[in-house]
Amino acid sequence: MQTLFADRTAAGRQLAEQLRGVVGREAVVLALPRGGIPVARPVAAALGAPLDVLAARKLGFPGEPELAIGAVTARGHRVLHDELLRNVVLPPGYLAAETARQTRRAAELERRLRDGRTPEPLADREVVIVDDGIATGMTVRAAIADVRDRRPGAVIVAAPVIAYTTYLALSQLADRVVAVLVPAEFRAVGEFYRNFDQVEDAAAARLLAEAAEAPGRVPRRDRPRRLSGH
């Protein structure tokens, strides 16, 4: 019988157990919105780590937006599906236009979800990239490239379920990949959840705000500035 997670929060709790002893101190958890946020919330709480967001968007094939020819983050880090692109012909200018469009959408989503909070610094820290499940891994690959550019101490990819072949591929890009389930047969992330309802912006933003206001944490926008010379 196939293992099912009750919902994203329950899956996040199980994932947190897998990460205990793997992630050290001074870690930061980055959730891929929107579905990764309810998973990442209990992970960050269990690790005592701040929770932030990293938006990555698929670059869709013309007329088939769910067929990813690549992915891009809000900071413009792009990865491409080279094997697919070798076998198709895109309209002139399409890739550049689609990249610009999805970069804007990712940046807008991050701004909405952060609600004025500044991004967590990543330099020299263990960064845990969390999603609700990883099928092809295209957006996660873009997220890894984005995080690597910010010189972290280590990059850990974590999800409740990751397709087996994708798990192997991501293991070549991240310092560590952690999952509860790594099935050989994988059609869609939702098939591993009893409740896989869409996560709305308001709910995602609320979870991020709750994490920022957790006891012992001061939201970054409210932290006092350090004055030089005193």
Distance between the termini: 64 Å
Radius of gyration: 18 Å
Averaged pLDDT? 91
* Low-confidence spans: 218-230
Helical residues, percent: 25-40%
Any idea of the CATH topology? Rossmann fold
Number of folding domains?
1
Describe the fold and architecture.
Helix content is 35%, strand content 20%. With 230 residues, it is an alpha/beta fold. The protein has a single domain (8-215), classed as Rossmann fold, CATH 3.40.50.2020. The strands form 2 sheets. Strands 2-1-6-7-8 form a 5-stranded parallel beta sheet, sandwiched between helices. It has a 3-stranded antiparallel beta sheet with strand order 3-4-5. Helix 4 (94-114) crosses helix 7.
Descriptors:
about 230 residues, globular, three-stranded antiparallel β-sheet, disordered C terminus, 7 helices, Rossmann fold
SSE blueprint:
Blueprint (H helix, E strand, L loop, with lengths): L7 H12 L8 E4 L4 H12 L3 E3 L2 E6 L2 E10 L4 E3 L1 H4 L8 H21 L11 E5 L7 H11 L5 E8 L2 H8 L4 E6 L19 H12 L18
Parallel strand pairs: 1-2, 1-6, 6-7, 7-8
Antiparallel strand pairs: 3-4, 4-5
Q: Gist?
A:
This protein is 35% helix and 20% strand.
